Amino acid sequence: MPPAPPRILVVDDEEAILYVFERYLSIAGYRVSVAGNGRDAVRIGEAGPIDLLITDFRMPGMNGIEVIHALRGLQPELPALVISGNPIEAGTMPPGVRFLSKPVSMSDLLDIIPSLIRQPV
Asked: For the Response regulatory domain, which residue ranges apply (predicted)?
């Protein structure tokens, strides 16, 4: 039986962005979960392992870095990608976190994802 496709969690407070990411990533063969805020993202992480976190930086409640720290409390090696329209505001990324500036090209995103997801040995 082939392994299940990688599970990606996308966190953004804009519904339109969640919709576009979910559509593109699903069509590309990934299992996708979406969350509109950090609290919901943590609940999803508590429900089961995630292979990659893609998060916006600026969101009400928890920002993207806080979401990463909360989910890494559950999965210390969780790879993450932060997307923001303001790289200066986002600042220095934690170890193992990549950064992309908005707007994001879906083809660029799909090219980057395989290098972020840790494949089982």
From this structure: 7-117
